[in-house]
Amino acid sequence: MLNKNIHKCNICDNILEKIFNYNDEHSYYRCQYCNFVKRIPGDLYVDYSNEYMSEELLNKSLVLAKNYYKRLNKIIKNDSVCLEIGGSFGFFCKLLKEKNNCIVYNVESSILATEYANKNKINTVSKIEEIDSNISFDNIFSFHVLEHLPPDDINSLISNLISRLKKGGLLILFTPNAESFKLKLFRKGYPWLAFPEHVSFLSRKSIEILFAKNNVEIIKITSEIPSYYHYPLISFVSIMRRIILPRKLSEISQIKNNPRKKKFKTHIISSAKTLYHSILFIERLCLLPFYYLLELFSTNKDELVIIGRKKPGY
After folding, report:
1. What's residue 269's pLDDT?
2. Which residues make beta-bridge pairs with 45?
3. DSSP assignment letter at 130
4. CA Rg value for the chain
5. What is the DSSP letter of 177?
6. More confident residue, 176 or 274
7. For position 57, what pLDDT does the model report?
8. DSSP labels for 17-50?
9. pLDDT digits (tens, 9 = 90+) for 181-203
10. Above pLDDT 90, what percent of the chain?
11. Mean pLDDT lowest for which of 165-179, 219-233, 249-263, 290-304?
12. How crowded is residue 262: how many other Cβ atoms within 10 Å of its Cβ?
C-alpha cells in the first residue's frame, strides 16, 4: 500500500520529492526521474472566463504575438490550417491569416477576449469540441497555457490536440522550463511560479515521455530567453505580490459573497494590477541587463520551446 504522504508523477508515475513549501498549505514537488514539477495540492485555480480587458493587456498581447510569430514564421507554410489554444485576443492568429493566408481557429476561455477576437474576424470558440470534428490542422500552437493546467489535464489535452492534427502536422508549445536555473536558485521567489495561476511545469524529459505516449516525433526542444514582455523578473514588486496575494484571494472570495460591492472592489483590483505592472516596467529597465547576463551562462533558461510532428500512420 502506497504511503499517503508519497506522491506520484502524473507524467511518468515515478516518485515526487518535495523541493520547497510555498506557504502553510501549498508545496512544490519535483519528479526524481523526469524533473516534472507540480504544486500540491493543485486544486486552487484562477477562472479566466471573466478576465478584465485593458489597453495595457491588449498591447502586451500584441507584442507577444509578434514575438512568437518572428520566432516561428520560418516553419509556417502559406495556406495552412492552424489552431491556437489559449489565443486570447487572436493577435497571433491574425498574423497567420494576414501574412501566410492561413485558415485560423482560436480556442479561448476568456469571454471578453473571445468577443474581441470574433469582432476582428478571428474564428474563436471557448472549447476545441466546438470546432467541426472533420477539420484537421497543419499546425497547432499553444503559448504558455500548459502551466495553468493540472497534470492530468495536460495529458488529456496533448492527446486531444494530436488527434486533431493532420499526418505530419506540427504541435508547437511554449511553456516555463521546470529545470530553469532561476527556479532552482530563487525557489518560491521565482515569478513564473505565479501562484495560484501556474500549477504544472514541464521539463525536456517529461515532454519526451508525453510525446512518446502520443506517437509524436520530437523536432525541437530548446530552453530560450522569453520575450521582454514575458520575462520572469525576480524583483521587489514580485516579492510583495506573493506576500499580498493571500489577502487578494480573500478579497476575491468576498466579492463573490457580496455582489453589491463587486463593481467597487473589481475597480480596486484592476487599478492595483495597473500600478503593479507600471512599477514592474521600471524595474525591468533597471534589472533586465543583469538577468540577461546570467542567462548567457546558463544552459537551462526559463522558456521551453517545443516542436513535435505527428508520426505517419497515427
Report:
1. 63
2. none
3. G
4. 20
5. B
6. 176
7. 84
8. EEEEESSSS-EEEEETTT--EEEES-------TT
9. 999 988 998 989 988 899 999 99
10. 63
11. 249-263
12. 13
Question: Which pairs from 243-252 meet CB under 8 Å and 24+ separation?
Answer: 245/195, 245/196, 246/23, 249/196
DSSP 271-312: HHHHHHHHHHHHHHHHHHHHHHHHHHT-SS-SEEEEEEEEPT
Lookup: cell for 17: 520529492
Pairing of strands 37-40, 303-310: unpaired
Residue with cell 495561476: 197
CB atoms within 10 A of CB 263: 9
Residue 51: pLDDT band with limits 50, 70, 90: low
The CATH architecture assigned to 55-226+303-310 reads: 3-Layer(aba) Sandwich (3.40)
Residue 213, C-alpha cell as written in the block: 505516449
Q: What pLDDT was estimated at residue 227?
A: 85
Mean pLDDT, the chain, integer: 86
Q: d(Cα 170, Cα 309) in Å, to the nearest integer?
A: 5
Residues contacting 284, CB < 8 A, separation 6+: 228, 231, 233
Q: Structural domain boundaries of the chain?
A: 55-226+303-310
